[in-house]
């Protein structure tokens, strides 16, 4: 239906409609000034399957993080107890050496697979955001992928884009008023994820420099810290992915106005 008072309303976007429960309610003036996209809703790309796959991979990251933390705690304890005096040497073949090496090898395929699916999902929800609320989105779809690979800028660009996508995916109230939904899931995930990147870099540096049992013990402690932070980052990422996906599915199915 049209919100125009004339007898021959102009064509409107399929998305620009009031819900059945609020057919007689006029949107607020502020909402009327904000343009909605002219692209059809059929251009939306369902994010649910990617979100489900990503949830599984992020859960695997969480399990890996537990393994990393447990291995680090165990290796650090036995090395400080003097149980493996030859550990950490270039030709070291002790149990702590083996456990630390195997744990590091497991990280590569898990994180690569998770990163690939995450960026794919992020690109898809950005595409949907440009349809659901293009006035909130300021960057092109290329940045939804490329923004993760720009040195230093990747610490800021994806975060800003995530907040824009979140805003574009929100439904308005039955009267067209803006409805605030906390962006805390985005901020919490982002801060902890950045911390996990730093913790990973510290661990990699210490592990690469370890030449004796004491050095390997220090690296093992860093590994335990990294594992704990990565576990938190994985859990918060799942919360963010599921929350944003739910917002888009709801708005895509029900339209820009919430029923109540």
Strand content: under 5%
Shape: elongated
How many alpha or pi helices?
A: 7
- Mean pLDDT over all positions: 84
| Total separate domains | 1
Helix fraction by DSSP (H/I, runs of at least 4):
55-70%
The largest sheet is: none
Q: Helix/strand/pairing class, anyone? A: mainly alpha
Counted beta strands: 0
Distance between the termini: 19 Å
Q: Low-confidence parts lasting 5 or more residues at pLDDT below 50?
A: 1-38
Radius of gyration: 24 Å
H and E order: HHHHHHH
What attributes does this structure have?
260 residues; 7 helices; elongated
Topology readout:
Layout: H1 29-33, H2 48-80, H3 95-132, H4 141-146, H5 157-168, H6 184-209, H7 213-254
Helix pairs in contact: 2-3, 2-7, 3-5, 3-7, 6-7
Give a description of the structure.
This protein has 260 residues and is an all-alpha fold. The protein has one domain (43-254). The protein is 62% helix and 0% strand. The protein contains seven helices and no strands. Helix 2 packs antiparallel against helix 7. The radius of gyration is 24 Å and the shape is elongated. The two termini are 19 Å apart.
């Amino acid at each position: 239906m049209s919100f125009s008072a004339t007898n021959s309303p102009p064509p409107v976007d399929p998305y620009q409609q009031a819900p059945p429960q609020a057919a007689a309610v006029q949107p607020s003036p502020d909402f009327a000034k904000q343009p909605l996209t002219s692209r059809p809703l059929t251009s939306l790309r369902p994010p649910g399957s990617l979100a489900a796959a990503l949830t599984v991979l992020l859960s695997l990251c969480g399990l890996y993080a537990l393994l990393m933390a447990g291995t680090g705690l165990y290796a650090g304890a036995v090395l400080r107890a003097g149980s493996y005096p030859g550990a950490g040497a270039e030709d070291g073949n002790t149990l702590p050496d083996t456990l630390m090496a195997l744990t590091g090898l497991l990280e590569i395929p898990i994180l690569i697979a998770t990163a690939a699916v995450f960026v794919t999902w992020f690109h898809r929800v950005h595409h949907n955001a440009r349809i659901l609320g293009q006035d909130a989105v300021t960057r092109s779809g290329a940045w939804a992928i490329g923004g993760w690979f720009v040195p230093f800028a990747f610490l800021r660009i994806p975060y800003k884009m995530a907040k824009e996508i979140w805003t574009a995916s929100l439904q308005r109230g039955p009267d067209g008023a803006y409805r605030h939904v906390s962006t805390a899931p985005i901020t919490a995930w982002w801060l902890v994820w950045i911390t996990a990147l730093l913790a990973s870099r510290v661990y990699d540096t210490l592990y690469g420099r370890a030449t004796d049992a004491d050095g390997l013990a220090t690296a093992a402690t860093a590994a335990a810290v990294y594992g704990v932070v990565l576990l938190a980052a994985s859990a918060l990422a799942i919360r963010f992915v599921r929350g944003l996906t739910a917002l888009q599915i709801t708005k895509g199915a029900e339209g820009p106005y919430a029923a109540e």
